Amino acid sequence: HQILVIHGPNLNMLGTREPEIYGSLTLDQINQSLVDCARQEQAILSTFQSNSEGELVTRIQQARTDGTTWLIVNAAAYTHTSVAIRDALAAVAKPFVEVHLSNVHQREDFRHHSYLSDVAKGVIVGLGAWGYEAALRYILQQPVS
Ligand code: DQA
After folding, report:
1. Each residue of 2-37: pLDDT tens digit?
2. Whose CA is closest to atom 1 on ligand 1?
3. Helix H segments across 2-141?
4. Which of 1, 16, 57, 62 could form a disulfide with 43 if both were Cys (CB 3.0 to 4.6 A apart)?
5. Is residue 76 in contact with ligand 1, taking CB distance under 6 Å?
6. Residue 145 has pLDDT above 90, yes or no
């Protein structure tokens, strides 16, 4: 497998950003443990974070031809607003797991709707950084198609 992890806006601030909601691990720490976990299973994992919707769309589009087999996507606040990111994911037609660190359903109403969930293979919310690892372990069990 070749897995691309997409992190949306403000996730570069993990570790210091509302740690009671998002945990105390930094994005680098989360990414490093995902890379290590993938490597142990002979998979390749790369990560991309941007605060810009357009950059996220462009990187997702590249996944159509760069060998990516699956994506793990935490679009952060764009989850709740972005038709463009949804369309990009639909256009590349690669399966993806949607992940949120926090349980968005326990939070404000505006976080209850996701533009991505109905096109995702699955959705993991509320398990903190472990949600990314759970998504990765699931993907590593899937046949490469
Ligand atoms: C988030 C939840 C979103 O509602 C929020 O805007 C984020 C992070 C999460 O991982 O819990 O930035 O995607």
Report:
1. 999 999 999 999 999 899 999 999 999 999 999 999
2. 76
3. 19-22, 27-40, 53-62, 83-92, 130-140
4. 1
5. yes
6. no
In percent, how much of the chain has pLDDT > 70?
100
Distance 145 CA to ligand 1 centre (A): 30
Q: What is the pTM of this model?
A: 0.98
Check if the beta carbon of residue 17 is closer than 8 Å to that of residue 27: no
**Number of helices (H) and strands (E), helices first, in the chain?**
5, 5
Assess whether 138 carries a catalytic annotation.
Answer: no
Q: Which one, of 3, 6, 4, lies nearest residue 76 by Cα?
A: 6
Q: Is 77 in the pocket of ligand 1 (CB under 6 A)?
A: yes
> Residues 7, 22, 78, 115: which is the catalytic one?
22
Cβ atoms of 124 and 101 within 8 Å: the answer is no
* Angle formed at CA 36 by CA 34 and CA 37, multiple of 5 degrees: 65
- Quote the longest CA-to-CA distance of the chain: 41
Give the residue, by CA position, lying nearest to ligand 1 atom 6.
77
Q: Domains of the chain (ranges plus CATH)?
A: 2-140 (3.40.50.9100)
